[in-house]
Structures are given as structure tokens and as C-alpha cells.
Design goal:
Layout lengths: L7 E5 L6 H13 L3 H7 L8 E6 L5 E3 L3 E3 L3 E2 L8 E4 L15 H12 L3 E5 L2 H7 L7 E2 L6 H7 L4 E2 L5 E2 L7 E4 L5 H13 L1 H11 L23 H12 L6 H9 L3 H12 L3 H19 L4 H7 L5 H12 L3 H9 L9 H8 L2
Parallel strand pairs: 1-2, 1-6, 2-5, 6-7, 7-11, 8-9
Antiparallel strand pairs: 3-4, 10-11
Helix pairs in contact: 1-6, 6-7, 8-9, 11-14
């Protein structure tokens, strides 16, 4: 990196991008070197990064949520960047963005070939995958897109648990997980471009902390269905209410009216999971909800969702969520709205 100039960093955005990620990155990266000395000595410093918002075209457009953005540059300008961060690009969890970003993908390939570090946040990794830059590489992205990656990008090693994947950093590619993983990416890039001290100072200014537990504690069960298989859809509906039943797979097969082998094959085709895997997912998802909203003993939680063996329940819960049941409860215990839902709102409205 040439020390005579500031590192050039591009934030690539599109109408499918969210304001939270784009402007969050813009605020934090734009503050490096400038805000901390102002807060601690009253004398602002110089911004250390040359930060630009880049889009397919230079004309203003509206982001997801109808928020206006005015790009500094377009990909047509062909200006070089040290780092390009692809912000999130919303697409349904069942739909790959095939053909939607052809020019943008070509731009990423060219920039990468010319030495730019390509980074992504959340669903931004889908554009990097479309560019072919993730083939044969481990990748992070939003946990809800694991099935889409498996179906549409089988050459990509998608890690549903990862917050930040640096395994291919030496090859010019970094990927970050869902939504607020942009914060972890930002601090890493600040350390890389400006030094560890500035990364720490920026974290202090913005009260940023890492996601040390990964994405799994935040992940919810993705319930995939096949509208063309009514028998399996009925079984999925049934198990949602009867997840604690004994012999759940045999019971679902009986509900379906299919032979056990036929049931297993069709269930996996419709849901992407073997029947017993689906049952475990439903049970653990229900256990999460109980832990989040009650103080019931952990072993009782396991019993209530269908596990007679507490050790097996704890082991399965940790494998699924990345945390023990007790640690999971502690993590989410602070996210509590005191009082009845809406009580503060109704109280304020009643005043006067």
C-alpha cells in the first residue's frame, strides 16, 4: 500500500441494498482518524480513508426502504480501489440473483484481477459468488441463505455459523455474515489499512464489539416447503404442534399415508432435510423460544420438547446454536421489554 496516499475504499450499493449497512459502514469508516482525537482532545484529526459510494450508475437512486443515495462514482468510471465492500443485496432466500448483476459481477472480477481486495456483507456475498470469486472458497453470509448456496452455488463452501471468513484474504476475498457483521468487517479492515490502534479507537468511538459467538445463536429454523407435495406439507404442519410426541418420524409417515421409504424420500426432497433432522430442528427452535421467554429449568425445557435424555438435549442444542442452553438464555435474557407490550406507548398517548 502506498503510504503517500489514503487507501481508497469503495462501498458498492444497489437498490436492493439496505441503508443500515451502507450508511453504517460509511459513518464508521469515514470516522477513522478524525473523530477519536476530537472526542479526547477537542482537536479533530484527518480522515485516513478515501471513502466512496459506488453504484452501477452515478445517478441518484433509492435504496431498499425508499432511502435516497447519491453515489460518488459508478463502476463505469473504472477508478482503482484498494478495497471494495459489496453491501447487502436483498433477494428472497429461495431465489439466486441470476442475470441481475452481470455488469457489476464483471466489474468485481476485473477489480479483483487488478489487485483490489473484495469484501462483502450479508447477501452481498451472492454478488461475489455470481462473479465466480467464491468457487472453492469458504464463505460467510446471512444464515438464512444456507439452502440457497447449497442449491445454486455448490462450488462455494458456505459456513452458516461464520461472522467473518478470512481464509481467502491473502487471495483478495473476505466475506462477512448477516447484517451487523459489517461491524466486524469494518474493524478488521481498519486494522489492516490503518493499524490496530485506529481499529481500537474506532471501536471505542462507536461502541463496537465483535460477535464472538458467531451467527448460530441468532439463526432460526428455515422451514422450506414444496407447494406441490400436499402430503409432506400436512406432515410439516402436524409436527409443528406435535414435536414432543414419541416416535415422531413414524407418526409423520403414518399421517402422510405413504410407505416409510417413500415418505423419507419425498420429505427430504420437499424440505431439504431427513425427517429426523427436521424434527430435531423444530424441537430446538421451540426450545430456543422457551429459553428466551421463561426461567424454566434447562432439563425441563428438554423434556417439554421431546427429549428424555438431558445430556443428549444439551449436546444437540449446543451443536445447533453454538451455545449451551444456559449460555443461550443469558445471551438473550437482556433483550426484554419490561411491562406489558405497548404499555409505555399507550401510557404516553393517554397523557393529556
Amino acid at each position: 500500500m502506498n503510504s503517500a496516499r489514503r487507501p481508497r475504499v469503495a462501498l458498492f450499493a444497489a437498490p436492493e441494498s439496505s441503508p443500515a449497512i451502507l450508511f453504517g459502514l460509511y459513518d464508521v469508516l469515514g470516522s477513522v482518524g478524525a473523530v477519536y482525537p476530537d472526542m479526547t482532545t477537542g482537536e479533530p484529526g484527518d480522515a485516513l480513508l478515501d471513502l466512496r459510494i459506488v453504484a452501477a450508475h452515478a445517478a441518484p437512486f433509492r435504496l431498499f426502504g425508499n432511502v435516497l443515495v447519491e453515489p460518488h462514482e459508478s463502476i463505469e468510471d473504472g477508478e482503482p480501489f484498494d478495497v471494495i465492500i459489496v453491501c447487502d443485496l436483498y433477494t428472497p432466500t429461495t431465489t439466486a440473483p441470476r442475470g441481475r448483476f452481470v455488469r457489476e459481477a464483471a466489474w468485481l472480477r476485473t477489480m479483483h484481477a487488478n489487485g483490489s481486495l473484495i469484501a462483502s456483507v450479508c447477501t452481498g456475498s451472492l454478488l461475489v459468488a455470481e462473479a465466480g470469486l467464491l468457487d472453492g472458497r469458504r464463505c460467510a453470509g446471512h444464515w438464512a441463505y444456507g439452502d440457497l448456496y447449497a442449491a445454486e452455488y455448490p462450488a462455494v463452501d458456505f459456513d452458516v455459523s461464520a461472522i467473518l471468513v478470512l481464509a481467502s484474504e491473502a487471495d483478495g476475498v473476505i466475506t462477512a455474515g448477516g447484517v451487523t457483521a459489517w461491524q466486524d468487517l469494518a474493524l478488521h479492515l481498519i486494522a489492516r489499512l490503518c493499524g490496530q490502534e485506529h481499529a481500537v479507537r474506532t471501536a471505542k468511538v462507536h461502541l463496537l464489539a465483535g460477535h464472538q459467538d458467531g451467527q448460530l445463536p441468532f439463526a432460526a429454523m428455515v422451514r422450506r416447503t414444496d407447494p406441490n407435495d400436499a402430503a409432506i406439507a400436512r406432515c410439516q404442519t402436524w409436527i409443528e404442534e406435535h414435536y414432543a410426541t414419541e416416535s415422531p418420524v413414524a407418526s409423520m409417515a403414518e399421517q402422510s399415508g405413504l410407505l416409510p421409504r417413500t415418505f423419507g424420500r419425498r420429505f427430504r426432497a420437499a424440505t431439504g432435510r431427513r425427517p429426523i433432522e427436521y424434527v430435531h430442528a423444530v424441537r430446538i427452535d421451540e426450545a430456543r423460544k422457551i429459553l428466551e421467554s421463561s426461567s424454566i429449568n434447562v432439563d425441563e425445557v428438554g423434556f417439554s420438547v421431546g427429549y428424555d435424555d438431558p445430556t443428549f438435549f444439551r449436546r444437540l442444542f449446543k451443536r445447533t446454536t453454538g451455545l449451551t442452553p444456559a449460555a443461550y438464555r443469558r445471551k438473550f435474557a437482556a433483550i426484554v421489554l419490561h411491562g406489558e407490550p405497548g404499555s409505555w406507548f399507550n401510557r404516553d398517548r393517554a397523557v393529556g
